[in-house]
Amino acid sequence: MFNTVRASAAPASLAAKQKYDGSDVYLELCNIFFNKCYICETKEPHDINVEHFRPHKGDESKKFDWQNLYLACSRCNNIKLVEFDDIIDCCDIELDVFRAIRHVPPITPYAKSVQLLSMLPNPKVELSRRLLDRVYNSDHTVNKKVSGAFLRRKIFDQYNLLLDQINNYYNPVATDMEKELSLERMQKLIHRSAPYSAFIRWCILDDMELGELLVGYMD
Ligand SMILES: [Zn+2]
Q: For the residues of 16-44, what is the DSSP string, one character each?
């Protein structure tokens, strides 16, 4: 998961209370969530939904509440449903959502699972961890386009991009310029707009040297 800031005012179409997923809402949510699903961090997924963070259950004030509208892929949206309606909020500026759950990437392209660990003794964090565990580790058939195995493969691809940069950085014959370039590329990979940034950030945090050099870029 990644934090984001909802600085903008409610898009105009919400005022009419006819449609909660008008094009202005969708476009503004794409900006706020960097075109990523707020749960699995897949960038530009095949199928994306405007989701109610807290289910509206017919309540109009929740249904058209700008603060309650999030961007999620269909697969995560389906998995979340009612069972996970009290998870940590990535728009909460008080909470560091990526540090709340440790994300460990797959170490091979076809790994059977990824590891997720709650880092705070908090029921919301644990519920969110369980949701992410289901998202990343279950191969159920809600949406075959982004099955669990496909998703883990995409996380691995991103992790592999990081490994390239780590190898470049620690290459015994790397020049200062090459090391600097690798660090700049790692900054891109850990940016909250990048796919699966929580997995990549935790890898960097685990490295004594890179963690110190790059922790300042994990806003
Ligand atoms: Zn998703």
A: GTS-SS-HHHHHHHHHHTTTB-TTT--BS
